[in-house]
Amino acid sequence: MDQYVIDKARVRAAFDRAAQTYDAAAVLQKLVRDEMFSRLDLIKIAPHRILDAGCGTGYGSFELQKRFKAAQVFSLDLAMGMLEKTHAQQSLLNKLFRPKRLICADIENLPIADNSMDVVWSNLAIQWCNDLDKSFTGVARLLKPNSLFIFSTFGPDTLKELRAASNNGDTHVSRFIDMHDIGDALTRHGFNAPVLDVERYTLTYDNVRAVMQDLKSIGANNATQGRGRGLTGKGFFKQLAAQYEQFRIAGKLPATFEVIYGHAWTAEAKVDNGLGEGVSPVSFRPRG
After folding, report:
1. pTM for the full predicted model
2. Tens of pLDDT along 236-271?
3. Which helix (H) or strand (E) holds 118?
4. CA distance 81 to 126
5. Which of 9, 108, 177, 235 has its CA 20 to 30 A from that of 80?
6. Residue 74 zone, left/alpha/beta (φ > 0; ψ -120 to 50; rest)
7. Could you give all domains of the chain from N- to C-terminal order, each with its CATH number?
8. SS (HEC) of 233-258
9. CA-closest candidate to residue 54, choices 82, 93, 91
């Protein structure tokens, strides 16, 4: 058995519970979302339909709707609790969102029609997918030709301090995918000109309990198959706290997050020009 396979039922339950505490604790998620929008500013698009895949409490969807007022924005999440929070917040912004377009589903099994979206946006969600190839196949399927997939996800150095401090034979941190492997997967599934890069963020805490509480508040519980199945007692937590102390700098404990940013395009539409070759009738280009 692969100890790092993610239990989706456990993920769903964790995010359901975290829906009410998520926004207050999601400091990093907000930073990454803002960075994604700054990158989107460099790309000239006029989409009709946008999918926010892994919408959380909906703030990415709200901003996408503000930027692309004529577009239909669809908000998808695995956890019904997150969609309920999105629905409640959309109700306060009913001038933007009328009607509401909410989908409760897994990114690995997207219940959306082929060639129906112009943009798929995903902020820090695809790290919860067990099968990246299956996920990218689904995204490519539902995007129209010459359409944009823009995303962020976590890389292998994420929570490296917690991984090192909790090395007791069980899995305590998910296995995150390397940037180069993500690029290869995009190419395998027909995406053109993938662009990927990495940024590292460090959050600091007074103690290990605060680290764990922050992760719990955003729903980032350990959902791997290799997690400890018994109760985590005081002995384990004491050992974890002691091991984590080796990373303390200037009075604070760091928690590192490696964030991979990426975007790529689906293949151009082919039209019959009488020669059996294809040309692209539409082209999206960065603003000059």
Report:
1. 0.88
2. 889 999 999 999 999 999 999 999 999 999 998 765
3. strand 117-123
4. 18
5. 177
6. beta
7. 8-159+174-202+258-265 (3.40.50.150)
8. CHHHHHHHHHHHHHHCECCEEEEEEE
9. 82
